[in-house]
Amino acid sequence: MQGLKKGSSLTRPFSIHHIKRMFSNSLSALEDTFLSTKDTYERHKVVFTLLTSIASIGTAWTGYTLRHLHETKVEQRLDSIENAMKRNYDLDGKEFKKMVGNGNSNAAACVATSGVTLVIGYGLGWRGGRWYANRKFKREQMKLLGQVKPKKWQLKKILGRLRKSNTAVKASVKASESAIPVAHNAA
Hints:
Elements: H1 16-43, H2 45-89, H3 93-100, H4 107-145, H5 154-179
């Protein structure tokens, strides 16, 4: 087992010192990258702002153009369907429009739909708003009475639990080590 001696090239990458050094190097490289990117952004902030504005305008224009092209294709397809139906069934314009409709939706249907949506939305908002307000009010009352303490940052609580568990483990290890009888041989 000549290859697995201490300090051999096989065990060197897995030593604690080597792993710590790799972690430290990675962390410093990450920090350098962040700082250089931040510095570049701060030096060229106006250019980046202008470029993002131009990109936003270009995206909006492209979306509008694609939507317009799609709309013209749909209109052409509907016109071809209308012409085919006119040729096949010998309908004139008035009869065809009577059969298809004038293209406008029924006003009563729009009013009914919007009314139902308004009532449902208002009802859900009123119920949710009332629930939220009551909950906040009860919490404020309990805070004033001292029954509820304001919430702290959750990470501190988790770290505190970890510290407590680590000290408990260390204390139990020390207690178990002191409870092990040690033989003293007198010569």
